[in-house]
Protein backbone atom coordinates (compact mmCIF):
# COMPACT_ATOMS: atom_id res chain seq x y z
CA UNK A 1 0.00 0.00 0.00
CA UNK A 2 2.36 2.71 -1.28
CA UNK A 3 -0.15 5.33 -2.50
CA UNK A 4 -3.90 5.69 -2.08
CA UNK A 5 -6.50 8.07 -3.49
CA UNK A 6 -9.00 8.86 -0.74
CA UNK A 7 -12.28 10.80 -0.71
CA UNK A 8 -14.19 12.73 1.93
CA UNK A 9 -16.83 15.41 2.34
CA UNK A 10 -13.97 17.87 2.90
CA UNK A 11 -10.18 17.90 2.62
CA UNK A 12 -9.88 17.41 6.39
CA UNK A 13 -12.19 14.40 6.31
CA UNK A 14 -10.29 12.90 3.37
CA UNK A 15 -7.01 13.29 5.30
CA UNK A 16 -8.56 11.65 8.37
CA UNK A 17 -9.71 8.75 6.18
CA UNK A 18 -6.19 8.40 4.79
CA UNK A 19 -4.75 8.34 8.32
CA UNK A 20 -7.12 5.49 9.18
CA UNK A 21 -6.10 3.55 6.07
CA UNK A 22 -2.38 3.88 6.74
CA UNK A 23 -2.83 3.74 10.54
CA UNK A 24 -0.45 6.66 11.09
CA UNK A 25 -0.85 10.31 12.24
CA UNK A 26 -1.12 13.19 9.76
CA UNK A 27 2.52 14.25 10.04
CA UNK A 28 3.70 10.89 8.64
CA UNK A 29 1.81 11.26 5.34
CA UNK A 30 2.52 13.05 2.08
CA UNK A 31 -0.73 14.66 0.95
CA UNK A 32 -1.55 15.83 -2.58
CA UNK A 33 -4.93 17.53 -3.06
CA UNK A 34 -6.60 16.28 -6.25
CA UNK A 35 -9.99 17.96 -5.79
CA UNK A 36 -11.32 20.26 -3.07
CA UNK A 37 -14.89 19.20 -3.80
CA UNK A 38 -18.00 21.37 -3.84
CA UNK A 39 -21.28 21.45 -1.97
CA UNK A 40 -23.47 22.05 -5.02
CA UNK A 41 -26.74 23.99 -5.10
CA UNK A 42 -28.04 24.52 -1.56
CA UNK A 43 -25.66 21.82 -0.44
CA UNK A 44 -27.79 19.13 -2.09
CA UNK A 45 -27.48 19.08 -5.87
CA UNK A 46 -24.19 18.44 -7.66
CA UNK A 47 -22.20 17.69 -4.52
CA UNK A 48 -18.61 16.61 -5.27
CA UNK A 49 -16.40 14.94 -2.73
CA UNK A 50 -12.92 16.17 -1.90
CA UNK A 51 -10.21 13.83 -3.17
CA UNK A 52 -6.55 13.47 -2.15
CA UNK A 53 -3.59 11.24 -2.96
CA UNK A 54 -1.76 10.03 0.16
CA UNK A 55 1.47 8.11 0.72
CA UNK A 56 3.74 7.37 3.66
CA UNK A 57 6.43 9.99 4.18
CA UNK A 58 10.00 8.80 3.60
CA UNK A 59 13.01 11.05 3.48
CA UNK A 60 16.48 9.54 3.27
CA UNK A 61 19.18 12.20 3.36
CA UNK A 62 22.85 11.19 3.35
CA UNK A 63 25.34 13.75 4.61
CA UNK A 64 29.05 13.80 5.37
CA UNK A 65 28.28 14.03 9.10
CA UNK A 66 26.12 10.92 8.90
CA UNK A 67 28.89 9.03 7.07
CA UNK A 68 31.45 10.01 9.68
CA UNK A 69 29.34 8.65 12.53
CA UNK A 70 28.39 5.39 10.81
CA UNK A 71 31.79 4.49 9.29
CA UNK A 72 34.35 3.58 11.95
CA UNK A 73 38.00 4.46 11.35
CA UNK A 74 40.50 1.56 11.14
CA UNK A 75 40.98 -0.16 14.50
CA UNK A 76 37.98 1.58 16.11
CA UNK A 77 34.59 -0.16 16.64
CA UNK A 78 31.67 1.30 14.68
CA UNK A 79 29.60 1.70 17.86
CA UNK A 80 32.32 3.78 19.53
CA UNK A 81 32.64 6.00 16.46
CA UNK A 82 28.88 6.53 16.48
CA UNK A 83 28.81 7.53 20.15
CA UNK A 84 31.57 10.11 19.72
CA UNK A 85 29.83 11.88 16.81
CA UNK A 86 28.50 15.40 17.23
CA UNK A 87 24.74 14.91 17.37
CA UNK A 88 23.87 18.59 17.01
CA UNK A 89 26.05 19.08 13.94
CA UNK A 90 24.74 15.88 12.40
CA UNK A 91 21.15 17.05 12.93
CA UNK A 92 21.96 20.43 11.35
CA UNK A 93 23.59 18.76 8.33
CA UNK A 94 20.54 16.53 7.79
CA UNK A 95 18.16 19.49 8.12
CA UNK A 96 20.25 21.53 5.68
CA UNK A 97 19.99 18.66 3.20
CA UNK A 98 16.22 18.50 3.60
CA UNK A 99 15.86 22.27 3.11
CA UNK A 100 18.09 22.15 0.05
CA UNK A 101 15.90 19.49 -1.54
CA UNK A 102 12.89 21.67 -0.80
CA UNK A 103 14.57 24.61 -2.55
CA UNK A 104 14.96 26.54 0.72
CA UNK A 105 18.61 27.44 1.35
CA UNK A 106 18.12 29.09 4.74
CA UNK A 107 20.86 29.23 7.41
CA UNK A 108 20.34 27.08 10.51
CA UNK A 109 21.61 27.87 14.02
CA UNK A 110 21.93 25.39 16.89
CA UNK A 111 21.20 25.77 20.61
CA UNK A 112 21.95 22.92 23.03
CA UNK A 113 20.77 22.13 26.56
CA UNK A 114 20.90 18.94 28.63
CA UNK A 115 17.35 18.11 27.52
CA UNK A 116 17.14 19.22 23.88
CA UNK A 117 18.88 20.33 20.70
CA UNK A 118 17.06 23.26 19.07
CA UNK A 119 17.58 23.95 15.37
CA UNK A 120 16.41 27.42 14.39
CA UNK A 121 15.82 28.14 10.69
CA UNK A 122 16.54 31.78 9.88
CA UNK A 123 13.99 32.76 7.27
CA UNK A 124 10.68 31.53 5.81
CA UNK A 125 8.64 34.62 6.60
CA UNK A 126 5.95 33.15 4.32
CA UNK A 127 5.22 30.36 6.79
CA UNK A 128 5.67 27.58 4.21
CA UNK A 129 7.87 25.62 6.61
CA UNK A 130 5.39 26.01 9.45
CA UNK A 131 2.21 24.77 7.77
CA UNK A 132 -1.27 24.72 9.26
CA UNK A 133 -1.01 24.48 13.04
CA UNK A 134 2.72 23.75 12.69
CA UNK A 135 2.11 20.45 10.86
CA UNK A 136 4.93 20.88 8.31
CA UNK A 137 7.42 21.93 10.99
CA UNK A 138 6.38 18.98 13.17
CA UNK A 139 6.72 16.56 10.24
CA UNK A 140 10.31 17.66 9.50
CA UNK A 141 11.10 17.55 13.22
CA UNK A 142 9.79 13.97 13.34
CA UNK A 143 12.06 13.00 10.42
CA UNK A 144 15.09 14.58 12.11
CA UNK A 145 14.52 12.74 15.39
CA UNK A 146 14.13 9.44 13.55
CA UNK A 147 17.19 9.98 11.34
CA UNK A 148 19.51 11.06 14.14
CA UNK A 149 18.16 8.49 16.59
CA UNK A 150 19.20 5.64 14.28
CA UNK A 151 22.90 6.45 14.45
CA UNK A 152 23.70 7.39 18.06
CA UNK A 153 22.94 7.08 21.74
CA UNK A 154 22.30 10.77 22.38
CA UNK A 155 18.63 10.68 23.41
CA UNK A 156 18.06 14.43 23.55
CA UNK A 157 14.95 15.66 21.77
CA UNK A 158 15.56 17.63 18.56
CA UNK A 159 13.29 20.68 18.38
CA UNK A 160 12.78 22.53 15.10
CA UNK A 161 11.81 26.20 15.09
CA UNK A 162 11.59 29.13 12.68
CA UNK A 163 10.58 32.78 13.09
CA UNK A 164 10.00 32.14 16.86
CA UNK A 165 6.97 30.02 15.93
CA UNK A 166 7.22 27.74 18.98
CA UNK A 167 7.07 30.67 21.44
CA UNK A 168 4.20 32.31 19.56
CA UNK A 169 2.31 29.02 19.44
CA UNK A 170 2.82 28.48 23.19
CA UNK A 171 1.49 31.97 23.95
CA UNK A 172 -1.59 31.29 21.81
CA UNK A 173 -2.25 27.94 23.51
CA UNK A 174 -1.88 29.40 27.02
CA UNK A 175 -4.38 32.16 26.14
CA UNK A 176 -6.72 29.54 24.63
CA UNK A 177 -6.48 27.37 27.76
CA UNK A 178 -7.32 30.33 30.00
CA UNK A 179 -10.34 31.35 27.88
CA UNK A 180 -11.70 27.81 27.68
CA UNK A 181 -11.05 27.35 31.39
CA UNK A 182 -13.16 30.40 32.20
CA UNK A 183 -15.96 29.01 30.04
CA UNK A 184 -15.85 25.66 31.86
CA UNK A 185 -16.01 27.44 35.22
CA UNK A 186 -19.03 29.44 34.05
CA UNK A 187 -20.98 26.56 32.48
CA UNK A 188 -19.63 23.78 34.74
CA UNK A 189 -19.48 21.59 31.61
CA UNK A 190 -16.37 19.95 30.05
CA UNK A 191 -14.88 21.32 26.83
CA UNK A 192 -12.98 19.12 24.36
CA UNK A 193 -10.14 20.46 22.19
CA UNK A 194 -9.45 18.17 19.19
CA UNK A 195 -6.47 17.47 16.92
CA UNK A 196 -3.58 18.81 19.01
CA UNK A 197 -0.03 17.47 18.87
CA UNK A 198 1.51 15.93 22.00
CA UNK A 199 3.53 19.12 22.52
CA UNK A 200 0.45 21.35 22.24
CA UNK A 201 -1.50 19.16 24.67
CA UNK A 202 1.36 19.39 27.15
CA UNK A 203 1.29 23.22 26.98
CA UNK A 204 -2.42 23.24 27.87
CA UNK A 205 -1.93 20.69 30.66
CA UNK A 206 0.82 22.85 32.20
CA UNK A 207 -1.18 26.07 31.77
CA UNK A 208 -4.04 24.70 33.92
CA UNK A 209 -2.22 22.28 36.25
CA UNK A 210 -2.28 24.66 39.24
CA UNK A 211 -5.93 25.66 38.83
CA UNK A 212 -7.89 24.76 41.96
CA UNK A 213 -11.18 24.30 40.10
CA UNK A 214 -10.19 22.72 36.79
CA UNK A 215 -8.33 19.63 35.60
CA UNK A 216 -7.31 18.32 32.17
CA UNK A 217 -7.28 14.85 30.64
CA UNK A 218 -6.17 13.35 27.33
CA UNK A 219 -8.26 10.74 25.56
CA UNK A 220 -8.13 8.86 22.27
CA UNK A 221 -5.27 7.49 20.19
CA UNK A 222 -2.81 8.89 17.63
CA UNK A 223 -3.92 11.93 15.64
CA UNK A 224 -7.39 11.56 17.16
CA UNK A 225 -6.10 12.10 20.71
CA UNK A 226 -7.80 15.08 22.30
CA UNK A 227 -7.59 17.10 25.49
CA UNK A 228 -10.57 17.68 27.79
CA UNK A 229 -10.87 20.58 30.22
CA UNK A 230 -13.33 19.85 33.01
CA UNK A 231 -14.22 20.77 36.61
CA UNK A 232 -12.44 18.83 39.33
CA UNK A 233 -14.55 16.34 41.23
CA UNK A 234 -15.47 17.46 44.72
CA UNK A 235 -14.05 15.49 47.60
What do these coordinates show?
Strand 4 and strand 5 form a beta hairpin. It contains seven helices and nine strands, in the order E-H-E-E-H-H-H-E-E-H-E-H-E-H-E-E. It has helices spanning 11-22, 64-70, 78-83, 87-101, 135-149, 165-187, 198-208, and strands spanning 3-8, 29-35, 50-56, 108-112, 116-121, 157-162, 191-193, 214-219, 226-231. Helix 4 packs across helix 5 (135-149) and helix 6 packs across helix 7. It has three domains: 3-56, no CATH class; 64-163, GMP Synthetase, Chain A, domain 3, CATH 3.30.300.20; 167-231, Ribosomal Protein S8, Chain: A, domain 1 (2-Layer Sandwich). 38% of the residues lie in helices and 22% in strands. The protein has a three-stranded antiparallel beta sheet with strand order 1-3-2, with helices on one face. A three-stranded mixed beta sheet has the order 4-5-6. The chain is α+β, with helices and mostly antiparallel strands.
